[in-house]
Amino acid sequence: MPNLTLDSLQSTIVDDVRRALAEDVGDGDITASLIPAERQADGRIITREAAVFCGRAWADEVARQVDPRISIEWLVNDGDTLLADQTICRFNGPARGLLTAERSMLNFIQLLSATATRSRHFADLVAGTSVKLLDTRKTIPGLRLAQKYAVTCGGCHNHRIGLYDAFLIKENHIAACGGIAQAISRAHEIAPGKPVEVEVESLEELKQALEAGADIIMLDELSDEDMRTAVALNAGHAKLEASGGITETTLRSVAETGVDYISIGSMTKDVKAVDLSMRLRFQAAD
């Protein structure tokens, strides 16, 4: 499946930010109202730790929706490597707006940068191999597209977006349909042209999936030896994806079996927020 691009996410970003502000600001920031409306401020956001940056479009949209008079000067781009104590942007505008926008801006940047950072870590582990690392549907509810975009900023790739854009036929689907061949055949009938992936748990099931014309075959918790055999049996007919039980320790050896893809759920579900700080300086009242 193709990777998400920022251009394709414009309406998503607006919606993400609208939801975030609705839950945080509600009908108004009562604490920011302590500050005189005419008071201005400037400041910067710094990262306290090394990371891969992602999220500037979301932060820009927070500023736009809170107060369009807020101006942000970005010093980094999505995908850039950050050093500890690095300034990532400078800003100025009405103090009330900046205080109201602060938490939502930081929330988006710290989560998406964390996702990009973890993705870069995994990408570095398989550097020099031909494998592509894929994300999964194990994302934070409501922020799937944002996290999947962040994955690409870290150098990894997007799997299917949801349950609607590609088939992924697993054990229970196979059982309900009466077999691998029947499930794949039915998928081709229901949605011609949609990618059809099937999960297999043995080399025998791999052969069945190949004979039935699967586009992608997921090798679920096969040994490295069996995956190498699967690559030979496949001979380039379908794309092979390794999944299940793969850790940072075993990732490189799986990549070296020759599979096309490895999917990793922890890329999006086991992230640790990047430590950020927004520092404000209030301008003197006239």
Automatic annotation (TrEMBL):
Residues 116-279 form the Quinolinate phosphoribosyl transferase C-terminal domain. Pathway: Cofactor biosynthesis; NAD(+) biosynthesis; nicotinate D-ribonucleotide from quinolinate: step 1/1. SUPFAM superfamilies: Nicotinate/Quinolinate PRTase C-terminal domain-like (SSF51690), Nicotinate/Quinolinate PRTase N-terminal domain-like (SSF54675). Keywords: Glycosyltransferase, Pyridine nucleotide biosynthesis, Transferase. CDD domains: QPRTase (cd01572). One of its GO terms (molecular function) is nicotinate-nucleotide diphosphorylase (carboxylating) activity. Pfam families: QRPTase_C, QRPTase_N. It catalyses: nicotinate beta-D-ribonucleotide + CO2 + diphosphate = quinolinate + 5-phospho-alpha-D-ribose 1-diphosphate + 2 H(+). It comes from the Bacteria. This is Probable nicotinate-nucleotide pyrophosphorylase [carboxylating]. InterPro entries: Aldolase_TIM (IPR013785), NadC (IPR004393), NadC/ModD (IPR027277), Nicotinate_pribotase-like_C (IPR036068), Quinolinate_PRibosylTase_N_sf (IPR037128), Quinolinate_PRibosylTrfase_C (IPR002638), Quinolinate_PRibosylTrfase_N (IPR022412). GO terms for cellular component: cytoplasm. It comes from Halopseudomonas aestusnigri. Involved in the catabolism of quinolinic acid (QA). GO terms for biological process: NAD+ biosynthetic process; quinolinate catabolic process. Hexamer formed by 3 homodimers. Its EC number is 2.4.2.19. The keyword Metal-binding does not apply. Belongs to the NadC/ModD family. Residues 29-113 form the Quinolinate phosphoribosyl transferase N-terminal domain.
